[in-house]
Design a protein that fits this description.
5-stranded mixed beta sheet; 3 helices; alpha+beta; Helix Hairpins; Immunoglobulin-like; elongated; about 25% strand
Length: about 220
């Protein structure tokens, strides 16, 4: 938690922990209170039930406090989400096509690959498209996940600060081989990325391979 290569790690993890801490706190308090009152007001000790009329102070308290907590959780979630929906204008654009059961990545110079190569410390925008059913583009290490829906344009963006190899998966059940819909994001220095992209564009599809110095550490 709070560590990772993406610019979204801190905001997503903070929102997660805010919700988690509040939820665990009230789980403990409510559970303890239930057990306490069950024992204290058991039928053995209180054979004759008594009617209790409304308590305005108590009712206001249990309305105001949850409302404030929900607004706090909403704020942390909204701040992080808003950042994800505003890709910088200088972002490098890559088209991502999802289909049963693979990912295809197309660069602006026409190069296509089934592994996503991106440069280090550069804003990258992925335009997401589906050829068939609903998919979801998910890179856990980057804390990004977005639905990929037929006939609808969607996108994600990120800026990665560490070289490495990171898993891409489909987070939406898309059919029989859904669990096999994996790929990789390979983050490499910009100079190496430019070398790969320029040379890849000169090769005939499937005829040759290009060796890239990735300087990566598998994750």
């Amino acid at each position: 938690m709070f560590s990772g290569p993406s610019n979204f790690v801190e905001s997503v993890d903070t929102a997660f922990w805010v919700v988690m801490v509040i939820s665990v706190f009230f789980l403990v308090v409510i559970t303890f209170s239930m057990v306490y009152f069950v024992i204290k007001y058991s039928r053995k000790k209180n054979p004759k039930a008594e009617n209790i009329h409304g308590n305005v102070t108590l009712e206001v308290t249990w309305t105001v406090i949850p409302t404030i907590l929900v607004l706090i959780m909403f704020w942390y979630g909204w701040v992080g989400y808003k950042q994800m929906t505003e890709a910088p204008e200088d972002s490098m654009v890559i088209d991502v096509t999802a289909q049963m059961w693979k990912w295809t990545f197309k660069y602006q110079n026409g190069v296509q690959a089934d592994t996503l190569y991106v440069p280090l410390k550069k804003n990258v925008r992925l335009n997401l498209h589906s050829l068939d059913v609903n998919h979801a583009f998910f890179v856990p290490a980057f804390r990004v996940k977005k639905d990929v829906i037929p006939n609808r344009n969607n996108f994600v963006w990120f800026n990665i600060s560490e070289t490495g190899s990171y898993n891409i998966m489909c987070a939406e059940y898309c059919g029989l081989n859904h669990s096999n819909m994996y790929s990789k994001v390979i983050v490499i220095p910009e100079q190496n990325f430019n070398f790969w992209l320029e040379n890849k564009s000169r090769l005939k599809s499937g005829s040759q391979t290009t060796t890239v110095k990735t300087d990566t550490v598998s994750n």
